[in-house]
């Protein structure tokens, strides 16, 4: 019953809490439904690399929607797949239909401060390079995820 222009939250992979992900064919159907109803996807991608063990496969739904839809949002967390619980390490990607729409975005300096959390953030800058690159340097990301 969502009206045109509504934002719909989707889990990109490793659906929480069920762990059951749509098949590629089901993602195609979901994408077409959202196109037909003029809905805007917002992907929650907190477990990339955990569902299939492959970062590229786990990004499949996001890539499908990015190819077929003019606008979408992706909230990507690295706290879980880098083992940095409590670090609040992530980003938000915004894909806009055109330059005019993109110009209306909010820069990080203009965004309101986040609300307090029950588990306060720690300093992600400290352990992040060691977790991501280790003493040997940067391994291929998909090798680390599997």
Structure commentary:
The chain has helices spanning 24-37, 55-58, 60-68, 99-103, 128-133, 141-145; strands at residues 7-11, 40-45, 72-77, 90-95. The protein is of the alpha/beta class and 146 residues long. Strands 1-2-3-4 form a 4-stranded mixed beta sheet, with helices on one face.
Question: Averaging pLDDT over every residue, what do you get?
Answer: 78
Order of helices and strands: EHEHHEEHHH
| Overall helicity | 25-40%
- End-to-end Cα distance, whole Å, is 39 Å
What overall geometry do the principal axes of the alpha carbons give?
globular
Strand order of the largest sheet: 1-2-3-4
Could you tell me the radius of gyration in angstroms?
17 Å
Please tally the helical runs, counting DSSP H or I stretches of 4 or more residues: 6
Low-pLDDT runs:
none
Report on the biggest sheet.
Answer: 4 strands, mixed
Strand content: 15-25%
Class by SSE composition: alpha/beta
- Say how many strands there are: 4
What's the quick description here?
The chain is α/β, with parallel strands linked by helices and 146 residues long.
Give me some keywords for this one.
6 helices; alpha/beta; globular
Topology:
Layout: E1 7-11, H1 24-37, E2 40-45, H2 55-58, H3 60-68, E3 72-77, E4 90-95, H4 99-103, H5 128-133, H6 141-145
Parallel strand pairs: 1-2, 2-3
Antiparallel strand pairs: 3-4
Helix pairs in contact: 1-3
């Amino acid at each position: 019953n969502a009206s045109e222009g509504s934002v719909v939250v989707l889990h990109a992979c490793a659906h929480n809490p069920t762990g059951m992900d749509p098949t590629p064919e089901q993602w195609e159907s979901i994408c077409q439904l959202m196109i037909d109803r003029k809905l805007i996807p917002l992907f929650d991608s907190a477990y990339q690399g955990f569902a299939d063990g492959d970062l590229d496969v786990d990004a499949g739904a996001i890539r499908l929607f990015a190819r077929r839809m003019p606008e979408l949002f992706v909230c990507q967390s690295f706290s879980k797949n880098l083992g940095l619980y409590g670090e609040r390490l992530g980003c938000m990607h915004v894909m806009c239909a055109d330059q005019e729409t993109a110009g209306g975005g909010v820069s990080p300096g203009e965004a309101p401060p986040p609300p307090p959390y029950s588990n306060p953030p720690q300093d992600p800058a400290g352990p992040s390079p060691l977790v991501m690159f280790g003493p040997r340097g940067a391994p291929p990301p998909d090798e680390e995820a599997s």
